[in-house]
């Protein structure tokens, strides 16, 4: 996209921070996002920004929790802007529109580096171990940030919940209702899934502090930079799916389809920076509940996003299998849990 052919909405976002098309030397779309659109903007003075916008309201391809999703990302970067030792983008501008107001665009600084999954195969064992420790330390620092209420900042389900159990119940109910709306075939009937999750709800009462949770810390949202042999964590990005809740929920995407307890380097960094990495029966049960929630999102979003037949088959088979395993783990959790 050349500067003279800017989308008017992009031009308006840049104009809000006193940047004209003539000030831009590069404006290019970025791939990798599955919901919002991303542009890299490079200015003549060397500044490098990311412009992020949500899909059109007319697209009709949203799950209920995705309402005003960019508000979460803006809230995340605002909450951590003074937190040392965590490489996150800095907000340059937050655009709001409509009534009631929604966040219709973000301008933020670009973190250096490449997505971890693109560099992973070339990492040395030492680089990988060091980067996982650095990630553990960063996540522990992020988990020192607390909010005033549980759930998503945009409150897509109505007024803020009084406690974490209520908030998480609203989150899971919403995605299960989306499954019904979009006609998604889950590996277990919707009401059975709802009952299994509800039956373990008492364990959520142990969570009394609303902690900052990114909830999408897979390798695509983690950047690495540096010379070969000395690469390390350089960016924690795409925080749009954040919520205020249980820090244990973070471990799901950090070890997607795997077991965070096997990640000794991450856990060492997490503990060294003050994070609590003690895996009691209660913590393991909560972790399985949060796995259920993420797997449900992954299964349900496949329909409104119109996955290809190959993508849909893989999602049903692979994600559906993991959802079944987590539901079984929740249903068979020990009664004491401590």
TrEMBL record:
Pfam family, one: APH
InterPro entries, per the entry: AGP_Transferase (IPR051678), Aminoglycoside_PTrfase (IPR002575), Kinase-like_dom_sf (IPR011009)
Transmembrane annotation, as ranges: none
Domain Aminoglycoside phosphotransferase: 27-278
Cited PANTHER family: AMINOGLYCOSIDE PHOSPHOTRANSFERASE DOMAIN-CONTAINING PROTEIN, AMINOGLYCOSIDE PHOSPHOTRANSFERASE-RELATED-RELATED
Protein name listed in UniProt: Aminoglycoside phosphotransferase family protein
Originating species: Streptomyces prasinus
